[in-house]
Design a protein that fits this description.
Helix content is about 40%, strand content about 15%. With about 325 residues, the chain is an alpha/beta fold. The chain has a domain of about 220 residues: NAD(P)-binding Rossmann-like Domain (Rossmann fold).
């Protein structure tokens, strides 16, 4: 049987690196990484690196077959962190260029990573049928990128398979984001709950995201398939902090700091940093506002279709912490 070609756009990033790691020991796949950066976090052997900027027309071609798969992970995603136009240049124009590449090379399956930012910031639970009300340029750009992929599928609906996933907060080895910042504060006993303890924070372990995504690819037929990807029972910030404290052997956080005080402190630090040309990672007034808004996302559709995760929240944290220690990160 002919090997399947897996083409990942944006494969050098956190999630893309974990996809390559997942496929590493599967000999039936040819792996291609289309990215500006010609390496990934785990230096996976057997990956063919092809320099590509999705903001420009993709000229590179490879020997393909009808069973090839594109995983489009390329994105500007840190919010805040980029000028508004940058999200659209990469996420929307990039979607068009990836879809054009798929047409030119006869590729029939695309998995596109969108975002729960498309739902906007509101407390009620959101499923795949909820109204899309993004509150930032990133979420808006992801909606437009979804439409671009949908238009690609509708040009040949009997043969093209489009999977759109909207992951919640993803954590794991190499993330260097929310969970890493949380770990550092809990490990130093300096974490305060921002505003309240019951803020819902949907999340997914990167290994579950990868295995579930590939399971969806294998199970679906030509059509448009949309899934939220997060734990079935979304934890509160207190649940996450309690589990993390237990895993790393630290005291469970207990104190709550009023959000107004945190905002005043963040404004001072942020603007002091700007005046002194200093950068304080993770500290931004807009990011503080998000801390007390629930990411209350339903993944009921995912689990109804007989998908399952391999890790509970606690098991994921144990696995993540163990891998980070093995890498000498903590």
């Amino acid at each position: 049987m002919q090997n399947r070609n897996i083409l990942i756009f944006g494969g050098s990033g956190f999630i893309g690196s974990h996809f390559f790691k997942y496929f590493e020991n599967m000999t039936k796949f040819n792996l291609y990484n289309f990215d500006i950066h010609q390496e990934n976090k785990f230096f996976i052997k057997g990956v063919k690196y092809l320099e590509s900027d999705v903001r420009s027309s993709i000229k590179t071609s490879i020997n393909t077959s009808p069973i090839d798969i594109i995983l489009n992970l390329a994105a500007k995603h840190t919010t805040p962190g980029h000028r508004h136009e940058e999200y659209f240049e990469t996420n929307v124009l990039g979607a068009k260029n990836v879809c054009d590449f798929a047409v030119q090379n006869g590729i029939k399956t695309i998995l596109f990573t969108s975002s729960i930012s498309t739902y906007g910031t509101r407390e009620e639970k959101k499923d795949e049928n909820s109204n899309l009300m993004p509150t930032d340029a990133y979420g808006m750009s992801k909606i437009q990128a979804e439409h671009t992929h949908v238009n690609w599928q509708k040009e040949d609906p009997q043969n093209r398979n489009l999977i759109i996933i909207r992951p919640s907060v993803v954590f794991g080895l190499g993330e260097n984001g929310n969970y890493v910042r949380l770990y550092k504060m809990i490990s130093k006993n300096i974490f305060f709950y921002p505003g309240r303890k019951n803020t819902i924070k949907a999340s997914v372990y990167v290994k579950d995201l990868v295995s579930t995504s590939f399971n969806i690819i294998n199970k679906t037929k030509p059509g448009i398939h949309l899934y939220n990807i997060c734990n079935n029972q979304s934890p509160t910030i207190e649940d996450i902090c309690t589990e993390m404290a237990n895993v790393i052997g630290k005291k469970k956080p207990r104190l709550i700091m009023p959000i107004k005080i945190m905002q005043i402190i963040s404004y001072f630090i942020y603007y002091f940093g700007k005046m002194c040309n200093l950068k304080f990672n993770g500290i931004h007034p807009d990011r503080i506002k998000k801390l007390v808004i629930s990411t209350n996302i339903s993944s009921e559709k995912l689990f109804k279709h007989k998908n399952k995760f391999h890790f509970t929240l606690r098991e994921a944290l144990v696995d993540w912490y163990s891998e980070c220690n093995e890498e000498g990160l903590y």
